[in-house]
Amino acid sequence: MATRIRDSTAPRIPLSRERVIEAAVGLADAQGIEALTMRRLAQELGVEAMSVYHHVANKDDILDGIVQQVLEECELPAPGDEWKAAIRRTAISTHDVLVRHPWAANLILGGAGTGAARLRYMDGILGTLRRAGFSAEMTDHAYHALDSHIMGFTLWQVGMNLGTEENLKEMAAQFLAQLPVAEFPYLAEHIEQHLKTRVADDVGEFEFGLGLILDGLDRLLPGDR
Q1: Which residues fall within 8 angstroms of residue 220, CB to CB, at 6 or more apart?
Q2: With left for phi above 0 and alpha for psi between -120 and 50, is residue 161 left, alpha or beta?
Q3: Closest Cα to residue 62, out of 97, 31, 27?
Q4: Quick one: fold of 17-56?
Q5: Smallest Cα–Cα separation from 222: which of 150, 132, 112, 103?
Q6: Looking at the domain 71-220, which fold is it?
């Protein structure tokens, strides 16, 4: 079989901050945030570690950059849209993005990525609530209720790391088989729910909780609507 020879004359893509951050996101997604070191990142890029420092200041700069890139994937609320629908889309989009990048929520809560993308995200939600008629004080409470649900549920979901739906059902069945049902009847009933096939219109736990928050906020809006 003929040996494939690398064409040394092929143009090499110049190293840039964008390439460094993109490679860092890919590395964190594939191998976890713990694998993201300057040495490993340089290997992924095919350069020496010192070359990376021409485009990022340090490891913290990389962490800020990858959080910013992830947040750019989130759908922001459009100013003219009905407030509940707009925030629902943003919340679901953000949750989906953070699940795709399971390392990101922890970094955000740790203070990384406080640049333009994070500020646009926060201002978009806050502005949507204010334009809907919430006071500044109620907007503050509403924002934190929504952010706690998005981040908290995401951290719970990625932290559990239970694998596929089939894995979860197998674990639930094994647990139920060993559970003294007469002693814990309601827990057994709860586990049985996880073994059932979800109906087509089941929104799932995240959207169910989100709906409760949005409906509760809707009832707090002052005046005629």
Answers
A1: 134, 138
A2: left
A3: 27
A4: Arc Repressor Mutant, subunit A (1.10.10)
A5: 132
A6: Tetracycline Repressor; domain 2 (1.10.357)
pLDDT for 7-63, tens place per residue? Answer: 544 456 789 999 999 999 999 999 999 999 999 999 999 999 899 999 999 999 999
Residue with tokens 């989130």: 74
- Give 83's contacts (C-beta < 8 A, 6+ positions apart): 77, 128, 129, 131, 132
Count CB atoms within 10 A of the CB of residue 195.
12
The predicted-structure confidence for 57-81, as pLDDT tens digits, reads as follows 999 999 999 999 999 999 999 988 9
Confidence of residue 1 (pLDDT cuts 50, 70, 90): very low
Rounded Cα distance between 150 and 152, Å, is 6
Alpha helices in the chain (DSSP H): 17-31, 38-45, 49-52, 59-71, 83-100, 104-109, 116-132, 136-160, 165-178, 185-195, 204-220
- What is the C-alpha to C-alpha distance for residues 129 and 84, in angstroms, rounded to an integer? 9
Q: Which residues contact 126 (CB under 8 A, 6 or more apart)?
A: 139, 143
